[in-house]
Structures are given as C-alpha cells and as structure tokens.
Amino acid sequence: MSSRSVLVTGGTGALGRALVDAFLSAGDRVVVPWIVPAEAEAARGAWREALGAGRAQLVEADVSEEAGAGAAAAAAGAVDVLVNGVGGFAGGSPLDETSLEVWDLMYRMNLRTAAACCRAVLPGMRARRRGVIVSVASQAAFAAPAGLAAYAASKAGIVTLTRALQEEVAAQGVRVHAVVPTTIDTPANRAAMPDADFSAWTPPAKIAGVVLWLASDTASSVRGALLPV
C-alpha cells in the first residue's frame, strides 16, 4: 500500500495517540489538529522523528468550527482517510440534573466535530471517488445507561451520521464506518473509576488496529460498518 494522507482528530489524546501511531507504522502521512497545548507538546516529543521527516504534522485548529476543520483538512491535502477520534465525556447524572451546557458540550465534542470534518473532506473524496471515514462511537449509544443521556445521545448521533453518510456516498467510492468501543482503558478513565475491572476495558491499541483495518484495501468491500471493539 502506498503512503496515504490521513487526518486524525483528537490525535493528541490517549486513544488518538494510538491511532496516529498505527497509521505512522503503516507508512502513512498523518495530520493531527490540536487545541490543548500540553497534549500537543507531549505529542511533539513522541513523534519527533516523524515530524522531522514530514510524515506527521500538528496543526492548531478547533475542528468543532468550520474554519478549524477546513484548516486541518487543507493541511492534510488530498485526504485519503479521516478518523474522527476527538471526543469526551461529561455528565453522569439524571436528566433533570444535567445542565443544557453539558448537552451542548457533548454535542460539540462528540458529534459536531465529526460533522464539521466530514464536510471538510467530502468534496475532495467525492471528486476522487475514493476515501475512508471512520468515527468513534460508543456502546453507550445502544445501551443508553441511566444517567448518561447527554453522552449516549451524542454517540448515538455518530451512529446515525455513519449510516446516513454511507447512504449518501455509496455510489461515489467513499466508505464510512464507526468503531463502537466499551470503556477505553486510558489513564483518565482509570483515575475516574479506580475500582473498576480494567481487564474488561478496551486498550487504545486494539481500537487503533480495527480502525487501521477498516481504512485498508483489505476492507474495501466493507461499507457502513459499526464494529464493537
């Protein structure tokens, strides 16, 4: 497989770092937008060699905004693969105790970012009649646990976005998927839930492996997959 241009949002986070590492290991060029300075600085240290060789690029951009998503896509050039990896969690309380600000935050982080980045890369993918988009949903989108309505609804939006967008681009050679993880084994989640059974959680590298496969030529016949991981 020849080198591809890959845009990974949320690439400076725990899952995102694993996603970027997987694509770099596959020989691809990866562009990573960022908004948290400390995360960007840590990423610079981790990817120093790839950054120096021009195989990785960090771009300061808020991809929940059209301008930021456009800037990230422009830096990547002809985007072959978009991974919508940016996201987060807030809430954990009953609906009547969850503020509308939390709903806005979950929508903005988990769904609006994906929609903005899809809009930014789709014209080029349509024109070239190829491309892969993989988003990160959550099994909470299907289980809808009590107290997690805002988070679960935003991730259910990713599921619906994936299905609807695949229908829109099915005839134009673009493939659209989502991975659907359980709780991801990250330092932040371990700190938040210290008494949990970490062995039941999904390591970021495992998710990255599935995303890499979905974006590969081996999976070229797969359309609209929603893969539990």
Structure description:
The chain is α/β, with parallel strands linked by helices and 229 residues long. The chain has one domain: NAD(P)-binding Rossmann-like Domain (Rossmann fold, 3-Layer(aba) Sandwich). 48% of the residues lie in helices and 16% in strands. It contains 9 helices and 7 strands; from the N terminus they run E-H-E-H-H-E-H-E-H-E-H-H-E-H-H-E. A 7-stranded parallel β-sheet has the order 3-2-1-4-5-6-7, sandwiched between helices. Strand 1, helix 1 and strand 2 form a beta-alpha-beta unit. Helix 1 crosses helix 9 and helix 5 packs parallel to helix 7. The longest helix is centred in the middle third of the chain and has 29 residues. The chain is globular. The protein starts with a strand and ends with a strand. The mean pLDDT is 96.
- Can you identify the CATH superfamily? NAD(P)-binding Rossmann-like Domain
CA radius of gyration: 17 Å
Biggest beta-sheet profile:
7 strands, parallel
Category by helix and strand content: alpha/beta
| N-to-C SSE string, H for helix and E for strand | EHEHHEHEHEHHEHHE
Instruction: Classify the beta-strand content into a percent band.
Output: 15-25%
N→C terminal distance: 25 Å
CATH topology: Rossmann fold
Q: Order of strands across the widest beta sheet? A: 3-2-1-4-5-6-7
Multimeric status of the protein: single chain
Per CATH, the class reads: Alpha Beta
Global outline: globular
Low-pLDDT stretches are: none
Mean pLDDT: 96
Please indicate the count of domains. Answer: 1
Relative helix content: 40-55%
CATH architecture: 3-Layer(aba) Sandwich
